[in-house]
Amino acid sequence: MFSSVWQLLKEHPEFIAMLTIPPVTAFVTWAHVWMALEMLFYPIKFWGVRVAGMPFGLKGLGWQGIVPAKAGKISGVIVDQTLAKLGNIKEFLEAMEPAEMADFVTSAVDSNLEELIDEIMLERSYTLWTHTPYAIKRRIYAHAHSELPSVMKNLVLDLTYHVEELVDMRQMIVRKMESDRKLMVDMFLRVGKKEINFIWKISALIGFGFGIIQMAIFYFVPQHWTVPFFAAIWGALTNWIAIWMVFNPVEPHYVRFLRVFRKDDDGIHFMLPHIHRYNWQGGFMKRQDEVSSVFAEIVVKELVTLENIMHEMMYGARAKQTRALMKSHMHAMLESPVVATTLKVGLGGEGEIHRFEEAIIDKSIDATMVPIRDPELNTSRADKIFGLFESRIRSLTPKEFQNLLRPAFKEDEMTLVVLGAITGLLAGWLHLVAVFF
Length: 437
Fold this sequence. Notes:
single chain
């Protein structure tokens, strides 16, 4: 039968040109899928000429990767559909052991406490502080040193208790992703590395299959227009099928079949025939356990970090509430008779004292954020919540789990399909000109 089909093909007047269709289609499909994946993530920043007033939210004549261009929207979807299901930010901060954090911050601030007091006093009341006897200064220093541990511990515990009111986790992560779009791209590439490679590699095989179909169509309909026309269709279908295979079916479906071969690191080997059960499920969902570790590491080291949480508290949209809470704790350090007397003598009215308290809070925030940014502290806190995140990501349902990667493709999936059609059309036309004419 094969020889008969081969003989019929050989008799076709454009036999040689027809034979080029499957390999050319495979190569073109592989190339345009690679291009589509690159355009999904790169360039990080807009490349081209910016033009105001462009339709469809376009920035101008040029291109920016779909993921970095829509970092805010995509990260919002990930928080809403996945991270929000893993727990609340209060739970995460409590798991970081606030009492230990308070001790770390206290130790760092205490070593520079006297310089901090001098800086505040010289800024607010230079004359008073320069003429204050050293004995009184020592009493103020000693009072601050003695009060700092309890004040800092109570403050950190209070901030932890009220963290839900002071930090919007969604806003914190979206702001982080928008300010560091490369981080979002790196996150998707790390989480979906195998799926992205799969899409790229399977595209050539799919393209070769479509090429055989197109060759058969050309045999029965020997019209040159069919070459670019069907190349465009295959280009669109290949992108759609490859993406579909990564995420579908969402739920596992077990199919029984007769297995006679096994594959290991040494290659493919024959084995005794037996009934095997194959899990037919989207490739990304199959890797839930493996991906859980990768994504948990990204979350605890880049997104839900101690530094990010505290930065959002101190400088974010709800910073005014944080300052009010901090002020209530600072009073313990200002109520000592020697401190209160010194302030009243040097600063005068309540208004000036109020401004002095604001200055103390500003300096305290800056002084506190220095040790909070310490890599060692952040790494130790990340280690404490890694297991929590990893176990909860593993326990997500397949539908919830797919939303770790699906938003990157779903946001502009049609763009990738249309892009495949356009590149397929152009490649088909070049193929027609180069081989058929």
